[in-house]
C-alpha cells in the first residue's frame, strides 16, 4: 500500500518515493523507468501513478518480458506495446499538435515505437514513417508530404546517423534526432551515430542520448502542444 507523505507530493512505497506532484509542476506525470526494477515494483508504481492520475494515461518504459507478462495479469486494463517495450494505464489525452516519427530502418523500430508512444501519452498525435533511411533516399523524398506539415519531428537512425541531417535540409521544422545502437562494430553501440548527429550541418537539429526514444518523445510533444496553443 502506498503511503503519502505529509505534503502529498510523494507516495512512499518503501523501495521508491513516487513523485505524484510532477503533473502539477510540469504538465506531465512521472513515468516508470522499468530497467533495473522487478516486475512487481513496476506493477506497484504504475498502479500508484494511475490511482493519482486516473483521468490520463501513465507510462512505463524499458520493460522486460517478465514485467510485461505480470502487467497483463495484474493490470488487465493496461495497454502493452511489446515492440516499444512499454505499457500505459489510463486514457490517452486529447491530442494537440502533430509529431512525425521518422525511422531509418526496421532495426530502429523499438526506439521509434517508444518515441511514438511517449508522444501520445504526452498529448500529441504521433505519425510513424518507417524504413526511409539514406541508403534508399527516394523513400524519404516520397514521404516528404507526410511530415512537411508536422509541428515537430523525431528522426531515429543508427549506423552513421545521417538521416537527421538529410531531413533537416528538407524542412524547417523543429527536429530532435535519436541515435540508436544499431550498427556494426565501428558504430560503437551508437556512438558513431550520436557524434554524426551532434556534428550535423543542418541547422535546428537537437540530439538526445543513444536509444532515448522517451526523451525525444517528451521534447517533441511539448513543442507540438505549445505550437497548437497559439
Automatic annotation (TrEMBL):
Pfam family, one: AIRC
GO BP: 'de novo' IMP biosynthetic process
The PurE domain, residue ranges: 97-229
Superkingdom per UniProt: Bacteria
GO MF, one example: hydrolase activity
NCBIfam families registered for this protein in UniProt: LarB (NF033503)
Protein name, per record: Nickel pincer cofactor biosynthesis protein LarB
Gene transcribed to yield this protein: larB
Amino acid at each position: 500500500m502506498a503511503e503519502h507523505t505529509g505534503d502529498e507530493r510523494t507516495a512512499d512505497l518503501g523501495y521508491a518515493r513516487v513523485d505524484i506532484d510532477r503533473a502539477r509542476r510540469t504538465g506531465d506525470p512521472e513515468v516508470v523507468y522499468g530497467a533495473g526494477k522487478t516486475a512487481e515494483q513496476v506493477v506497484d508504481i504504475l498502479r500508484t501513478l494511475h490511482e493519482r492520475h486516473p483521468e490520463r494515461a501513465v507510462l512505463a518504459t524499458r520493460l522486460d518480458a517478465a514485467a510485461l507478462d505480470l502487467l497483463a495479469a495484474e493490470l488487465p486494463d493496461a495497454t502493452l506495446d511489446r515492440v516499444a517495450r512499454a505499457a500505459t494505464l489510463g486514457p490517452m489525452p486529447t491530442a494537440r499538435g502533430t509529431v512525425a516519427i521518422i525511422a531509418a530502418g526496421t532495426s530502429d523500430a523499438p526506439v521509434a515505437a517508444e518515441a511514438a508512444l511517449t508522444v501520445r501519452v504526452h498529448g500529441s498525435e504521433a505519425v510513424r514513417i518507417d524504413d526511409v533511411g539514406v541508403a534508399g533516399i527516394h523513400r524519404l523524398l516520397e514521404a516528404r508530404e507526410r511530415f512537411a506539415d508536422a509541428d515537430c519531428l523525431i528522426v531515429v537512425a543508427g549506423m552513421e546517423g545521417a538521416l537527421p541531417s538529410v531531413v533537416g535540409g528538407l524542412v524547417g521544422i523543429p527536429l530532435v534526432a535519436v541515435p540508436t545502437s544499431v550498427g556494426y562494430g565501428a558504430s560503437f553501440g551508437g556512438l558513431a551515430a550520436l557524434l554524426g548527429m551532434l556534428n550535423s550541418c543542418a541547422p535546428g537539429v537537437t540530439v538526445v542520448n543513444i536509444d532515448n526514444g522517451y526523451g525525444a518523445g517528451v521534447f517533441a510533444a511539448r513543442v507540438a502542444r505549445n505550437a497548437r496553443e497559439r
